[in-house]
TrEMBL record:
Keywords: ATP-binding, Nucleotide-binding. PANTHER family: ATP-BINDING CASSETTE SUB-FAMILY C, ATP-BINDING CASSETTE SUB-FAMILY C MEMBER 9. This is ATP-binding cassette, sub-family C, member 9. InterPro entries: AAA+_ATPase, ABC_transporter-like_ATP-bd, ABC_transporter-like_CS, ABC_transporter_C-like, P-loop_NTPase. Coiled coil: none annotated.
Length: 233
């Protein structure tokens, strides 16, 4: 057994549990929150562990509803740490993020993470069907799913597959190209109807043609949504 693996296991065993419940009752959160997509970042300070130095210090920003904002910086400058802060996956030890008037530190984690959308550099698909990957809670009609696929320019490809929406997706989506997986993630974000979309290096691993599709969709289908794009260029 490698010592690095043992240390990693020990770090998980000693890690403090997340404040899953928050201080707000889920019933207090408006049904369609966040409806506007307004983001206020007040003196945000972030670190990964209590004994580590801050990776972000006193960050301030105001993002208007529906605004498209780009965050650029060199590798290691804290860009992805900011995206993780929106989902409370890092320790916000000072300052706060307020979305549509609610301090996200008060929200139950499931509520927070289910109401925002994110597209990462490495697109994630799950073993199952295309339908499950677009709408895991089975809340949407087939028409809505086909609309999302058409917007992401995947409709014809999915229609050609045996089963259509019920076509098989292998573990990690390995039966699709990286570009196709990223477009599936974009379609999933559209289906969720979240007013806020975080794109963390979403175009770093895809070809130029797919990047052009993604950028076009963001500026049209997501025209009324707040989009925060994080990139190194």
């Amino acid at each position: 057994v490698q010592m690095g693996a043992v240390k990693k296991v020990n770090s998980f065993l000693t890690m403090e549990s997340e404040n899953y419940e928050g201080t707000m009752d889920p019933a207090q959160v408006p049904e369609h929150w966040p409806q506007e997509g307004e983001i206020k970042i007040h003196d945000l300070c972030v670190r990964y562990e209590n004994n580590l130095k801050p990776v972000l210090k006193h960050v301030k920003a105001y993002i208007k509803p529906g605004q498209k904002v780009g965050i650029c910086g060199r590798t290691g400058s804290g860009k992805s740490s900011l995206s993780l802060a929106f989902f409370r996956m890092v320790d916000i030890f000072d300052g706060k993020i307020v979305i549509d008037g609610i301090d996200i530190s008060k929200l139950p984690l499931h509520t927070l993470r289910s109401r925002l959308s994110i597209i990462l550099q490495d697109p994630i698909l799950f073993s199952g069907s295309i339908r499950f990957n677009l709408d895991p809670e089975c809340k949407c009609t087939d028409d809505r799913l086909w609309e999302a696929l058409e917007i992401a320019q995947l409709k014809n490809m999915v229609k050609s597959l045996p089963g259509g929406l019920d076509a098989v997706v292998t573990e990690g989506g390995e039966n699709f190209s990286v570009g196709q997986r990223q477009l599936f993630c974009l379609a999933r974000a559209f289906v969720r109807k979240s007013s806020i979309l975080i794109m963390d290096e979403a175009t770093a691993s895809i070809d130029m043609a797919t990047e052009n599709i993604l950028q076009k969709v963001v500026m049209t289908a997501f025209a009324d949504r707040t989009v925060v794009t994080i990139a190194h260029r």
